[in-house]
Write a structure and sequence with these properties.
Number of strands: 0
Structural class: mainly alpha
């Protein structure tokens, strides 16, 4: 035990704690539910987030993705497969590995088009996925580029869990959730929102209401790329009223 790194010793300690285990199960189930819903929508050949306008930045992407045919179905199958693997205890590590690149892609896409539908949920799902991967470190350590792999093997479920509640850990989880929400609310000066009316509300009675309304119409009425609309908004702000 003394030959193990501090991380390995800490890892062995948390694997014996009931509350960390509960949280890993919670992460697995919530991640699985998210992908089962999204995946089945694709398998059943329904457009995901069908309420979005086709000229909305995310709406246009999802419409184009929907028209890729069997590739759209393939993504749905991959999502459901990752979800099922996460649910089954013996295949959790494989499911988490399959899940990770997909959810990271969704997270980056959400940030790129400022889509509020997954602006909060996607980064939280990435963090939950990372937790599941770390929880299964004993299985994944053999494929990691470490010079010296610790030899404690795959950890079996302990006969008796520690019931000590990790206040610091869950305080960190709560803080992270709050920070992600704050980043969504204040990380960007403006957001396209999901509709023209919702978009215009963020500029109501503000100094740049006219420029903001033109930005919303640029996105939702004219279907101009988001980057161009943001550029026009930035220029309009510099023009004195």
């Amino acid at each position: 035990m003394n030959n193990l790194s501090k991380f390995d010793q800490f890892y062995l300690k948390i694997k014996k704690n009931r509350w960390y285990w509960y949280f890993s199960v919670f992460c697995r189930l919530t991640l699985a539910i998210g992908f089962i819903v999204a995946g089945m929508t694709k398998i059943l050949d329904e457009r995901f987030a069908s309420g979005l306008s086709e000229i909305h930045p995310m709406g246009s992407y999802l419409t184009a993705l929907y028209h890729t045919g069997y590739y759209y179905t393939f993504i749905g199958i991959a999502q459901v497969l990752a979800a099922v693997l996460l649910i089954i205890p013996r295949t959790v590590a494989l499911g988490a590995l399959l899940y990770f690149p997909v959810i990271v892609n969704i997270c980056i896409l959400s940030f790129a088009v400022r889509f509020e539908g997954s602006f909060i949920s996607a980064p939280l799902m990435v963090l939950a996925n990372l937790y599941v991967l770390v929880w299964n470190y004993d299985r994944l350590k053999y494929i990691l580029p470490f010079k010296n792999t610790p030899d404690f093997g795959v950890i079996k479920r302990p006969e008796k869990y520690s019931n000590k509640f990790p206040f610091g850990f869950f305080a960190g989880v709560a803080t992270t959730v709050v920070l992600v929400i704050l980043m969504f609310k204040y990380g960007h000066e403006i957001m396209p929102r999901n509709s023209l009316s919702e978009c215009k509300k963020q500029f109501a009675n503000s100094e740049f209401e006219d420029a903001g309304n033109r930005f919303c119409e640029c996105v939702h009425t004219h279907g101009t790329p988001l980057e161009d609309c943001l550029e026009e908004y930035a220029k309009a702000k510099k023009i004195p009223n």
